[in-house]
Write a structure and sequence with these properties.
The complex is a heterodimer. By secondary structure, chain A is of the alpha/beta class. Helices cover 37% and strands 24% of the residues of chain A. Chain A contains 20 helices and 22 strands. Classes of the chains: A alpha/beta, B mainly alpha. Chains A and B meet through helix 2 and helix 3 of A and helix 9, helix 10 and helix 13 of B.
Chain lengths: 578, 336
């Protein structure tokens, strides 16, 4: 029996430039107890469809046609219900687990109160003791201790918050759960635990599940049926195994092939370079950490570490780890945004925190950065060419206006953008991928020696990730720039880097060439990271919720006594062994 | 709600004391940068009253001696700081020899009464209206009417005061024109007196409310728009909570937090802002006292009133800082 039947649904957004058809003629059914994935890139209409089922479309969007029938309320069309009737459907019949795990809970209310108010809104007065018992029961169902109920959201980790949201979503045993990218803000280890928890509780109450996402691997490991959406249309629907193994629509094939795999074919299609002979020029290393550590109050974000990047031969050094592992702290230290608590950061033999005026300017020119959020990197009041021009002139590289224009155009072409299409626009007129490539172009114009790329692709769509990483990789090959690539994504680190350092709680736990460290991990933590990656392969098991929990306990054990596994050196980079 | 950490308390208390000391110093310093000699002003006033004053040189010297104007500046400063500790601001030069503290003690209750009533009403009305401007279930009529009412915010309080006076006192004769209480009632703890005070305070309070509620409404509107876009508001709706419950417990409850800090800061500003309102309604509060003191160049009174304004602001901020951890659990966490 179907829980939900969406029939010929169309959703329009009237805008000043005409009507945008966010969803057109979408039909799909969710059977009881079955998990259906909605996959597609941003703007494909997957979240809009789900919000329509909740009748929570953001203004000015509206349903232009079709029906959404819910069998739990006698198969009536949800679109015809009154506001009050629809309110009663929410949570009791369809529950929604929103995307932003970090901000989904009211910061001034205790966790249990936020479970209780949902129960009371649908059942009227319930005895306090009964509420207490039920909130404990649902919290236990998602693996949280009873005392968590008395905490405030800021006292929970991201994974715990998302499990609280799941607990809220299942507390009234709905017929259908809609989970909108429930793990997008979580690292892989936590993601696996949260997804397994969600599957477990959904199985227990027998509800249907709609999982919205953009990660083919996560879908393969989590759902039964898959709906591929593109520009508001359902392009392919079917059993997930059949779609993965035999995709019919070209877009589906593109989505599957855009997932970078550890050990899979490289998306860089660059021929491996012949190992260059390292010549000792006697020049000071490009970047050096001497016993650098960083503490924030009582917390040590980075334990003392020393390494040397010669820079004579350009290298891509990856720093991988979960959120809170200290990888962004390292990036900040390299850029001089953070001062070390102990030790020194040296650039070409000079302490970057003690540079004079001219030297500081040279340092800023030679060390460039690409950050995570392409939306926050541009001043919204200027056209994007301003962001490219300004540093170029400021560092005295411009000969005349024509030179600036040529340099900008060359940089755009180098990252695969058509200069005539992007340069004269305002940031909000460009996509996230275009903006991120412009940031790379901006860095390139200054011909730096070193690029610090902190999660440069985590906020852009999967199909664009490969392109941007290729742009960054070209900086090394074609422009001789050394790169420090900071990421949580092991698969991309595997492909682009020459050397990988795995960070955990501010310690390097495993380091060496990526084929060794990621291809054949030896440290328990690295193995756990790699096991937690959801593979777009039905024959590769992601393990059960119990496995995920056991792994988390394993993590605790590791954090007691971190040790480093050294997996060999590459020429031009040297990590000091403790 | 749990305990406030001692370190947080200490931190705030030190800030409070420092603020008061710095403010007191500035109040002392600024008039001394002016070339006017208060003793000469007093003498000038006496001369104006009597035509000629015999032995004016001597009187001037005595006055200067009496006010301690001959002491070195540092000694004057030390004396001033010691006196301020006991809320002794010296003697008024205009109403010589009444102590400034007596003048303030007489005026303060009137102002606090008027001010607290009007600012609390303004705060409540302003924030509620601001929230309603954003809430999706607000009746359409209200959504039109509230922004229209913002027009009053652009009217200076003196004008709105005069307008209200003209309508309600002169034309309709519902409220008395001026004064803080009726001439026929004896000040004291009686119902008659309380009624008279409320009757007299209504228009001044209304003139303040009408022109200042927009400040809160617009601030609240901005905060509510942010809160409306928060994921927890989306989840609240997805939970099928009743719209009113979401409005109060999820939206206003979070949006109001920064407004509470602004409220504390406003308390001090309000005495200053009330100067003209009190003047128009001949309301014998701190505002009128300050106004008259400035006209008379009565330095001790100006100093005393300014100090009280700062003291009240600093205390209000201190109290809000103490209350804040109780209304926002995140602060307690950061402080710990």
């Amino acid at each position: 029996m179907n829980v939900l039947d969406i029939n010929d649904l169309s959703i329009d957004f009237p805008t000043s430039k005409g009507v945008v058809h966010a969803v057109s003629h979408f039909s799909l059914s969710v059977p009881k107890g079955r998990r259906v994935g909605f996959i597609g890139e941003s703007g494909s209409g997957k979240t809009t469809t789900a919000l329509a089922a909740m009748r929570m479309l953001a203004a000015p969007g509206f349903v232009a046609g079709g029906s959404i029938r819910l069998n739990g309320v006698g198969g009536t069309d949800l679109l015809g219900l009154s506001d009050e009737e629809m309110r009663r459907v929410r949570l009791r019949r369809i529950s929604y687990i929103p995307q932003g795990a970090m901000n989904s809970l009211n910061p001034v209310m205790r966790v249990e109160t936020q479970i209780w108010d949902g129960i009371v809104a649908h059942e009227g007065h319930v005895e306090p003791g009964e509420l207490q018992r039920r909130s404990r029961e649902v919290l236990a169902g998602v693996g949280l201790e009873p005392h968590v109920g008395q905490l405030y959201p800021h006292e929970l980790s991201g994974g715990m918050k998302q499990r609280v949201c799941i607990a809220i979503g299942v507390c009234l045993q709905p017929d259908l759960i809609i989970a909108d990218e429930p793990t997008s803000a979580l690292d892989v280890i936590t993601q696996r635990h949260v997804m397994q928890t969600l599957r477990e509780v959904q199985d227990k109450i027998g509800a249907g599940l709609i999982l919205i996402g953009h990660d083919m691997g996560l879908m393969a490991q989590s759902v039964d049926d898959l709906a591929v959406m593109r520009l508001g249309e359902l392009v392919e629907f079917g059993d997930v195994r059949q779609i993965l193994e035999n995709p019919r629509h070209p877009y589906t094939r593109e989505l599957i092939s855009s997932v970078p795999l550890v050990g899979g074919d490289s998306f860089l299609d660059s021929t491996p370079r012949a190992p260059e002979v390292q010549t000792d020029t006697g020049a000071p290393p490009l970047l050096e950490f001497r016993n650098v550590s960083r503490r924030y109050g009582a917390v040590t974000a980075l334990h003392p570490m020393s390494f040397r990047l010669d820079g004579a031969v350009p290298q891509i050094i990856s720093i991988v780890g979960q959120s809170g592992s200290g990888k962004s702290t390292m990036g900040g230290l390299m850029l001089g945004f953070n001062t070390p608590s102990t030790g020194e950061v040296l650039f070409k033999g000079q302490d970057i925190n003690a540079l004079g005026g001219a030297a500081a300017l040279t340092f800023r020119k030679e060390v460039q950065a690409v950050f995570q959020d392409p939306y926050a990197c541009f001043n919204p009041f200027y056209r994007v060419n301003h962001a490219l021009k300004f540093p170029f002139k400021r560092f005295g590289l411009a000969r005349d206006e024509a030179h600036v224009t040529t340099a900008m155009e060359e940089a755009c072409v180098a990252v695969g953008l058509d200069p005539s299409l992007v340069l004269n626009r305002y940031p909000h007129q460009l996509s996230g991928g275009q903006r991120q490539r412009l940031i790379v172009a901006r860095a390139l114009m200054l011909s730096p020696k070193l690029l610090i790329a902190d999660e440069p692709v985590s906020m852009v769509d999967a199909s664009l990730r490969a392109t941007i990483l290729k742009n960054i990789h070209d900086l090394k090959d074609k422009h001789g720039i050394s790169i420090l690539y900071i990421t949580h994504d092991l698969a991309t680190a595997y492909h682009v880097s020459d050397y990988v350092m795995v960070l955990y709680h501010g310690h390097v736990v495993e380091a060496g060439p990526p084929k060794e460290v990621i291809g054949h991990p030896q440290h328990a933590y690295t193995r756990l990271l790699i096991d937690s990656i959801p593979w777009p392969d039905m024959d590769r098991d992601w393990g059960s919720a119990a496995d995920a929990r056991a792994d988390l306990e394993e993590l605790d054990r590791i954090s007691q006594r971190p040790e480093t596994v050294y997996r060999g050196d590459v020429p031009g980079f040297h990590l000091a062994q403790a | 709600m749990g305990r406030i950490p001692a370190s947080y308390l200490m931190n705030r208390a030190i800030t409070l004391v420092l603020t008061i000391v710095i403010a007191a110093t500035l109040i002392w310093l600024i008039p001394r940068l002016s070339p006017v000699d208060p003793a000469e002003i007093m003498l000038g006033r006496m001369t104006a009253g009597a035509g000629t004053v015999e032995g004016s040189e001597q009187i001037l010297a005595t006055l200067q001696e009496r006010f301690g104007l001959n002491d070195p500046l540092l000694v004057q400063y030390a004396k001033y700081m010691r006196n301020i500790l006991f809320l002794d601001f010296g003697l008024s030069t205009a109403s010589f020899p009444t102590p400034v503290s007596t003048l303030i003690a007489n005026a303060l209750p009137w102002t606090i009464g008027l001010m607290l009533i009007s600012i609390v009403i303004t705060f409540l009305i302003g924030n509620l209206l601001g929230a309603l401007m954003v809430w999706e279930h607000t009746p359409r009529l209200w959504k039109v009417a509230i922004p229209a009412a913002m027009v009053f915010t652009s009217i200076p309080p003196i004008l709105s005061g005069l307008l209200l006076m003209w309508i309600f006192s002169a034309q309709l004769q519902w409220f008395p024109l001026t004064g803080a209480y009726g001439l026929t009632v004896e000040p004291g703890w009686s119902w008659d007196f309380a009624g008279s005070v409320l009757h007299h305070g209504f228009l001044p309070a209304l003139s303040i409310v009408v022109v200042t509620f927009g400040f809160w409404a617009l601030g609240m509107r901005g905060l509510m728009i942010t809160v409306q876009g928060e994921d927890y508001t989306t989840l609240a709706k997805a939970k099928g909570l009743r719209p009113r419950y979401i409005l109060y417990r999820y939206m206003i409850r979070n949006a109001i937090l920064p407004q509470i800090t602004a409220f504390a800061l406003k308390i001090g500003l309000l005495i200053a802002g009330q100067v003209l309102v009190e003047r128009i309604f001949a309301y014998n509060g701190m505002g009128k006292l300050l106004y008259d003191a400035i006209l008379d160049q009565d330095f001790p009174v100006i100093q005393g009133v300014s100090f009280v304004i700062i003291l009240m602001t600093a205390l209000a901020v201190f109290i809000v800082d103490l209350v804040y951890p109780l209304i926002d659990p995140r602060i307690r966490h950061e402080a710990a």
